[in-house]
Amino acid sequence: MLYWLTALSDGGDAFNLFRYITFRAGGSFLTALLFGFMFGRPLINVLRRKQGKGQPIRSDGPEGHFVKAGTPTMGGLLIIAALTVATLLWARLDNQYVWMVLFVTLSFAAIGFADDYAKVSKQTTAGVSGKVRMLLGLLVAAVAGYWGASLHPEGLTNQLALPIFKDTLVNLGVLFVPFAVIVIVGAANAVNLTDGLDGLAIMPVMIAAGAFGVIAYAVGRVDFTSYLEVHYVPDTGEILIFCAALIGGGLGFLWYNAPPAAVFMGDTGSLALGGALGAIAVATKHEIVLAIVGGLFVVEALSVIIQVLYFKRTGKRVFLMAPIHHHYEKKGWSEPQIVIRFWIISLILAMIGLATLKIR
Prior knowledge:
The protein is mainly alpha-helical and 360 residues long. The chain has helices at residues 21-51, 76-90, 96-122, 130-151, 176-194, 202-219, 222-228, 239-257, 266-283, 287-293, 295-314, 324-330, 335-355, and strands at residues 159-161, 169-171.
């Protein structure tokens, strides 16, 4: 919205700053951060009053989690509100990639909110039917996949770009939209599975958002793509505004989610943020790189899949408990140990993912 102040610029005044994506990204970050600090405590107080007993705790979960009983959930509302306000304020509103990513984020937030509401209102860990959530997620992701494909330049439409291998594209044709659906829905559910300890999911999400903010900015500039020999995707640079807002909103949330958490993110936040990362990967043609940058989420999801399949086949468990962060809880690691070590792993993976921009 503030971009339109450039119409008042003569090219040499303060209004000219709004032409620069990096300047607006900084403004977006600060706006979302201040929003989180200003409205975090009031929102938590409202959630606590409305929810009463807070988020139900799994009876078969780690013993240390029972002390968290009474903690309110749906804290993801703070992040989603902060990043939405900041993005609408600082991004170019004529950019379709921004609207695509916001569409996925808000749609998955609505799905997650319905699930959280069902849990707290019925005081059960079973919320909205898994089939219903999956069907709605598939529909949202299909719309986003088709939308993204229609925005890509002619030479990249329905193409899968491979990292490291320059100028290498795989034509998926009609399979591109189903592939995009898998990326978006898979990312949403992987982040959702990771969200099991105080602060565990939000920091890796912010790290991934930072990495993809850099990627979006780079692939949206023809001079950068020419130097790096990556595929040029016009107009994706504006996604950096969204990523900066996500990081700012995430930090505002983390202020209250740091152990012991005053509020949980809930499915409202985890599904929305995971879906957003998937949508950004599709928009920037870096779907495979998401599996590297978000490698922690991939491992968390795989640990559940492996556990379920192996148990059905043999009646035995590979992990003491899945997702894998609960396995380490059962082994005696403290919650801060798990969280901080997983943060470190996420940062390493993000650096590896960013390295693919240069390694060709």
